TrEMBL record:
Species name: Mastacembelus armatus (zig-zag eel)
Keywords, comma-separated and alphabetical: Cholesterol metabolism, Endoplasmic reticulum, Lipid metabolism, Lipid-binding, Membrane, Steroid metabolism, Sterol metabolism, Transmembrane, Transmembrane helix
Record bears the keyword Lipid metabolism: yes
GO molecular function: lipid binding
Protein name: Insulin-induced gene protein
Membrane-crossing residue ranges in chain numbering: 26-47, 129-146, 153-172, 184-204
Compartment list: Endoplasmic reticulum membrane
Topological category with respect to the lipid bilayer: Multi-pass membrane protein
Length: 223
């Protein structure tokens, strides 16, 4: 009976394995993305604080990197959510992202993002408008070089706007402040940095999801 109707016997174990593997892989990817986000937050925020771009009140500074304790966990959580969201959106749209899918490209994307953040803190321009336009061009160039997907651009813009709004609220409530604000309570180039960060974490998340997908396919085929 098992030989005559094998399809009635095997789908459930394979489905259970795929579900277990996918859940495990999502947790692993989330942990890796969280770690990357925390590390980048510590390094990049240290640069901003040293250049007096952002100022935290003394009573909330509680880490060796002169950063408020809540900044790394928040950035890590946001990085994990973004990195998991990008491949999920690709799957829902039925259009897997295949442009420059290798780790060397991802590492170059990270390097460009760090350079954009570095430029926002150290490069001196005649005025904030020139700096903002330059960083906007660099951020769009990063998307064009390492992403080029409409879904990636749309998610990048949407998340950057939400992050900018959240930052405005934090500064308004006195959690921290920016020196020489020119866009309400913040610097006008901040959405550009957020956009570049979203594209970077999205690329990392897509690359991690690609290897998980291949592993599940190979394991299911072997079983």
């Amino acid at each position: 009976w098992c030989r005559t109707v094998p399809n009635l016997m095997w789908p459930e174990p394979l489905t259970a394995f795929a579900l277990y593997s996918r859940t495990t892989n999502v947790m692993i990817r989330g942990a890796m993305l969280f770690s990357v986000g925390v590390f980048l937050a510590l390094v990049l925020n240290l640069l901003q604080v040293q250049r007096n771009v952002t100022l935290f009140p003394p009573d909330v500074i509680s880490s060796i990197f002169s950063s408020a304790w809540w900044v790394p966990p928040c950035c890590g959580t946001a990085s994990a959510m973004i990195g998991l969201l990008y491949p999920c959106i690709d799957s829902c749209l039925g259009e897997p992202h295949k442009f420059k899918r290798e780790w060397s490209s991802v590492m170059r994307c990270v390097a460009v993002f760090v350079g954009i953040n570095h430029a926002s803190a150290k490069v001196d321009f005649a005025n904030n408008i020139q700096l903002s336009l330059t960083l906007a061009a660099l951020s769009i160039g990063l998307w064009w070089t390492f992403d080029r997907s409409c879904s990636g651009f749309g998610l990048g813009v949407s998340i950057a706007l939400l992050a900018t709004l959240a930052t405005q609220l934090l500064v308004y409530n006195g959690v921290f402040q920016y020196t020489s604000p020119d866009f309400l309570y913040i610097r006008s180039w901040l959405p550009c940095v957020f956009f570049a960060g979203v594209i970077t974490m999205g690329n990392i998340g897509r690359q991690l999801a690609l290897y998980d997908y291949k592993f599940i396919q190979e394991k299911t085929h072997q079983d």
